[in-house]
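DM between two lab members

TW: hey, do you still have the Copine-8 entry open?
JB: yeah, one sec
JB: this one, 578 aa:
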Amino acid sequence: MFGLEKPAGRREPGGSGGFPKMASVGDFNVLSSSIPATKVELSVSCRNLLDRDTFSKSDPICVLYTQAIGNKEWREFGRTEVIDNTLNPDFVRKFIMDYFFEERENLRFDFYDVDSKSPNLSKHDFLGQMFCTLGEIVGSQGSRLEKSIVGIPGKKCGTVIVTAEELGCCRDSVLMQFCANKLDKKDFFGKSDPFLVFHRSNEDGSFTICHKTEVIKNTLNPVWQAFKISVRALCNGDYDRTIKVEVYDWDRDGSHDFIGEFTTSYRELSRGQSQFNVYEVINPKKKGKKKKYVNSGTVTLLSFLIETEVSFLDYIKGGTQINFTVAIDFTASNGNPSQPTSLHYMNPYQLNAYGMALKAVGEIIQDYDSDKMFPALGFGARLPPDGRVSHEFALNGNPQNPYCHGIDGVMEAYYRSLKSVQLYGPTNFAPVINHVARYAASVKDGSQYFVLLIITDGVISDMAQTKESIVNASKLPMSIIIVGVGPAEFDAMEELDGDVVRISSRGKFAERDIVQFVPFRDYIDRSGNHVLSMARLAKDVLAEIPEQFLSYMRVRGIKPSPAPPPYTPPVHVLQTQI
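TW: and the structure you got?
JB:
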């Protein structure tokens, strides 16, 4: 049920100009767990964008926003790459989304001309935007929606074309390498600077770009680096679908010269290096004009290796356990628990925000933990009997054994400690992060993965120590979910969530992004439907866990254990007496 294909993990540092590297997001869907969602891949192209650069053309990027259910707030979903010097971009990076027939998913596509490496969009020129719904794209003829870009009064901002394609569930990737020989010379002073562009064909005969190689400078006989692409991206799992490959000579001004093209298919490529995989590069214009035209060079497939991508569920099936720890903020800023205004108020009729966040996340994660015993910690309180301040105390009052049975056991221990401890401060996260990290450091073989849920009302006091703890923990099999409750500003938390800029401490960057932060207020259902609020919260905070989990396993080269054979009951042989 965890979505596992992420050609686009939420966002990673890197990519063009310091922009996030990937263009889509995780896909755990709690609200529709009974009906597996269809996944659609959105491809974005623009025509006749505004030109905001004086001496060259714009360098566009597309940013997709989705609207939270229930409230009207737009949240960034992902970004494409930046394409230099063009008003007619065909973005390579796709957005992969769950599609539900019964849900209205509002989308907003914003376009910017990128002027620097800053990931902050306000530092770049706005080129306009387009609003639509996912259903509108899927429901258009050929699932291709063409709409005017708006947002700059009195200006024609061009058009955007968004195409949706339903994804087949293909988990194979291929590692391919190509070289070329005797390509046409296109540059006046030197040889060509060739690169390849791969397109897969769509149902309606049109083509969608799916990969660009790097540029090899000043040669007519380039050898490109091997590259990995999912079979889904290359041909949507249809082995006979046409793949068109175009060869270009790179030019600094963006007007790359067309050398020629050829077509193939996954089935042909899968034969590997052979005489079948040497392709003549043909330029149709030249062919039409010159009688003696043979070709514009050849492209040869050097290697073709199929790899099957493993999924989160492969590890779960192989026995990997998810260990869930919860840490709750007991600082005084939450308010007196006996007062209805307190975030810790114990209302006999409904859960408070802490209880809702805990139950929402815990009830899903507990399915992946076989013993259902969860350590539950508190921080920022004065403890009986002597009033000492602790940033790492057991909610059940037993520091030697802080485990509670099931989420209900955690809830019970939480309510009990509210009656016995005094809310105090400051808000220190590092001790509870280090607590879980000690356990994670002792099991690095892939058999266990640790998830720490921190629920807090606000401003963090030990930012430097927390950053250092997170950077150290990024090497371990663990993820951290932070849920912010109450009305506070949570700017510091956004910094810990390494989605836009990877977190660092003392010049050392986190090995991977392991923190996901969300403010609980974004998920509160206005009609008072707390079940819906909790389902939405769980869906969002858990979306990144599978990819964070897989990134740890990949970096460490840990493969899933084979799934145990299905249980077959013993056969009782009836012995008959003769």
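TW: got it. The first strand starts at residue 38 and ends at 47. The chain has twelve helices and 28 strands.
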